[in-house]
Design goal:
This protein folds into two domains: 5-80, Aspartate Aminotransferase, domain 1, CATH 3.90.1150.10; 91-176, Ornithine Decarboxylase, Chain A, domain 4 (Alpha-Beta Complex). It contains five helices and eight strands, in the order E-H-E-H-E-E-H-H-E-E-H-E-E. The protein has helices at residues 9-12, 32-41, 64-80, 104-109, 147-159, and strands spanning 5-6, 20-24, 48-49, 53-57, 112-116, 130-132, 161-163, 172-176. The longest helix is centred in the middle third of the chain and has 17 residues, at 64-80. The chain is elongated and about 55 Å long.
């Protein structure tokens, strides 16, 4: 039987919010978008869903009994949509550690120029790149562009949506003109 993995601090390579239940689906062969739609039909929409992940949030308002029932519902739904396991999308998007050079406000109001993303290593970003999921920026205004962040942006763009960047093709980036 194929496995279902949960994103955790142990397998993500960085700290992960313990109240975010992020299911990694490639090992099940199930499609997160299909599962998300089915869950919405049942009144339990996820926070986000893409082909490889489903994200839910647990809160102090959730009773332990309900969480167990929801887990059983989720397990049954995944089992009913199980398919052949597939390669997982790269987890680089969970691991980028930023180098903050200037505040986001300073970056936002700075003069800027557009360069190819591949040529931007060492520059300071004037914009944000935020893949969904997880919905956490890979690169924010005021952060140094690193090869790691470029690689993660490219990887995220291949498997899902990257929001807030000025170039939806992810080929270029706006960087600060001068510090």
């Amino acid at each position: 039987m194929a496995r279902l993995d949960l994103n955790s601090s142990q397998n993500a390579g960085c700290r992960v919010d313990p109240l975010k239940l992020t299911l990694l689906l490639p090992g099940t062969g199930a499609d997160g978008v299909t599962l998300g739609a089915a869950l919405f039909d049942l009144g339990h929409g996820p926070e986000s869903a893409d082909r490889d992940t489903l994200v839910f949030t647990a809160t102090v308002a959730d009773e332990p009994e309900w969480i167990v029932e929801f887990g059983e519902l989720l397990a049954a739904l995944i089992e009913s949509h199980r398919g052949d396991a597939r390669p997982a999308s790269p987890l680089a998007v969970w691991r980028v550690e930023p180098e903050v050079v200037v505040t986001p406000r300073q970056a936002f109001f700075s003069d800027r120029r557009r360069v190819r993303l591949a040529d931007a290593v060492g520059e300071v970003s004037a914009e944000q790149f935020c893949p969904y999921p997880p919905g956490v920026p890979l690169l924010a205004p005021g952060e140094r562009v690193t090869q790691e962040s470029v690689d993660a942006i490219i990887a995220a763009g291949k498997v899902g949506r990257v929001a807030y960047s000025s170039d939806p093709t992810l080929q270029t980036i706006e960087v600060i003109e001068q510090l």
